[in-house]
């Protein structure tokens, strides 16, 4: 940035900061301006750049419990929680202690380690569909491995996904669904060859007919979904939809895959499959099971998982997969989550939060709808109900962007997009929720 522009921007920020009673983001602005020269868009993952809400992101300095502090010293109640993993609160003391003990023994082995068994047993015990598990380094990797696995196992190529569901950035998942009930996949990003997505079909969420149409007319390897959508905002399934998918996939010889990268250990200890009582054949996981370190996993029935190399012929590997640090953070996080009352607490505070936000909106004449399951929530700036991606696009994203910035200035850090879910943690207190609702009331009054 030219020096004159930088000075001007500083003056503007200071003036606004003064008017807001001390909210300054000068250091954030400087760091982010430099970052844009160093990394595409200034970030390591797109949504962090605040593109869909406008303005620059704040640059974090540290996190603890329910809070984040930016480099200018502003404190936020954090409802992003590093996009889900921080379910017991950021930088939990027990997790940090276990990590530092493990660090003395080394950070990566590239050889079998007992901690993998320990986390694998915890996952297998908790998640109904999982009899065997393969660890990866991210949710994307888990979904890519899962895709190869379902194709290898069924000897079929075609997969069905849902409009608005995200399964990482593997080529085959980057499909624009279009507005039809069932649309043949077209690449959603330049660089994805057409051939990579021709076997990816899209159906409409919560619409069983759209799925059956595809199953009837294609040899489908698997139907893959977020069992509660978090990647087009928070969209819960109906129980009938999940039960119907189980029946349809069985009828047509396809596998059912729940991508629980976001919902796993989040909406219940056993994930969405425990919450809804519907068991898929294969499950992908990530986020929470790494307790803030890079982890993913896919697992399922033993006869399916034994296809994976070296037990079987389907190849998938990873230099850092199952590394002892990530395993340690995951184990300690799951131990804490397993303590009695964890999910009841998450449900209680998150219900209070979302009801408070919805009531505040209503009181001031704004149309906002939303909901939560346990510690996962979301809301849309439209009348609702929102049951699929097409409904979500009716949201007033411009109004949301203003609301988002005003909440940020009041010390509330929410996901910077209308199409993202929010997360609470065991570290969020009733006072944090009250503070957030009070801020929401003021912002809706001023919006
Ligand atoms: C449901 C789902 N699947 C897959 C992914 C990809 O995970 P990662 O970002 O760890 O690659 C995400 C990430 O948000 C997700 O929410």
From TrEMBL:
Residues 1-20 are annotated as: Disordered. It comes from the Eukaryota. It holds the Pfam family Aminotran_3. Pathway: Porphyrin-containing compound metabolism; protoporphyrin-IX biosynthesis; 5-aminolevulinate from L-glutamyl-tRNA(Glu): step 2/2. GO terms for molecular function: glutamate-1-semialdehyde 2,1-aminomutase activity; pyridoxal phosphate binding; transaminase activity. Its EC number is 5.4.3.8. Residues 7-17 have a biased composition (Basic residues). GO terms for biological process: porphyrin-containing compound biosynthetic process. Keywords: Aminotransferase, Isomerase, Porphyrin biosynthesis, Pyridoxal phosphate, Transferase. SUPFAM superfamilies: PLP-dependent transferases. It catalyses: (S)-4-amino-5-oxopentanoate = 5-aminolevulinate. Its cofactor is pyridoxal 5'-phosphate. HAMAP family: HemL_aminotrans_3 (MF_00375). NCBIfam families: hemL, PRK00062.1. PANTHER family: GLUTAMATE-1-SEMIALDEHYDE 2,1-AMINOMUTASE, GLUTAMATE-1-SEMIALDEHYDE 2,1-AMINOMUTASE 1, CHLOROPLASTIC-RELATED. Belongs to the class-III pyridoxal-phosphate-dependent aminotransferase family. HemL subfamily. Homodimer. This is glutamate-1-semialdehyde 2,1-aminomutase.
């Amino acid at each position: 940035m030219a020096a004159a522009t930088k000075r001007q921007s500083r003056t503007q920020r200071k003036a606004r900061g003064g008017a807001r009673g001390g909210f300054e983001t000068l250091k954030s602005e400087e760091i982010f301006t430099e970052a844009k020269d160093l990394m595409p868009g200034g970030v390591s993952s797109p949504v962090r750049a605040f593109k869909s809400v406008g303005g620059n992101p704040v640059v974090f300095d540290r996190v603890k419990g329910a809070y984040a502090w930016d480099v200018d010293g502003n404190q936020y109640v954090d409802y992003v929680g590093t996009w889900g993993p921080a379910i017991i609160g950021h930088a939990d003391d027990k997790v940090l202690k276990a990590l530092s003990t493990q660090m003395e023994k080394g950070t990566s082995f590239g050889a079998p380690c007992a901690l993998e068994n320990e986390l694998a047993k915890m996952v297998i015990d908790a998640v109904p569909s999982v009899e065997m598990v393969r660890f990866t380094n991210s949710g994307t990797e888990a979904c890519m491995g899962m895709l190869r696995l379902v194709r290898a196992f069924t000897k079929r190529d075609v997969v069905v996904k849902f409009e608005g569901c995200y399964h990482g950035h593997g080529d085959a998942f980057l499909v624009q669904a279009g507005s039809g009930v069932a649309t043949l996949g077209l690449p959603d990003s330049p660089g994805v060859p057409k051939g990579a997505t021709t076997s990816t079909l899209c159906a409409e969420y919560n619409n069983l007919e759209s799925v059956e149409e595809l199953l009837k007319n294609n040899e489908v390897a698997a139907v893959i979904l977020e069992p509660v959508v978090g990647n087009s905002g928070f969209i819960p399934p109906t129980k009938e939809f999940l039960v119907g998918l189980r029946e349809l996939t069985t009828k047509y010889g396809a596998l059912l895959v729940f991508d629980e990268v976001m919902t796993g250990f989040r909406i219940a200890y056993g994930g969405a499959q425990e919450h809804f009582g519907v068991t898929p054949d294969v499950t992908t996981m990530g986020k929470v099971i790494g307790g803030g370190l890079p982890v993913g996993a896919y697992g399922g029935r033993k006869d399916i998982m034994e296809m994976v190399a070296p037990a079987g012929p389907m190849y998938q590997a990873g230099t850092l997969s199952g590394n002892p640090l990530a395993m340690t953070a995951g184990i300690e996080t799951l131990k804490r989550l397993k303590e009695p009352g964890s999910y009841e607490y998450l449900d209680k505070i998150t219900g209070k939060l979302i009801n408070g936000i919805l009531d505040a909106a209503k009181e001031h004449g704004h149309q906002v709808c939303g909901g939560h399951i346990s510690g996962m929530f979301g809301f849309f700036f439209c009348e609702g109900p929102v049951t699929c991606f097409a409904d979500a696009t009716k949201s007033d994203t411009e109004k949301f962007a203003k609301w988002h910035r005003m909440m940020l200035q009041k010390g509330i850090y929410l996901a910077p997009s209308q199409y993202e879910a929010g997360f609470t943690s065991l570290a969020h207190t009733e006072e944090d929720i009250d503070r957030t609702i009070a801020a929401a009331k003021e912002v809706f009054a001023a919006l």
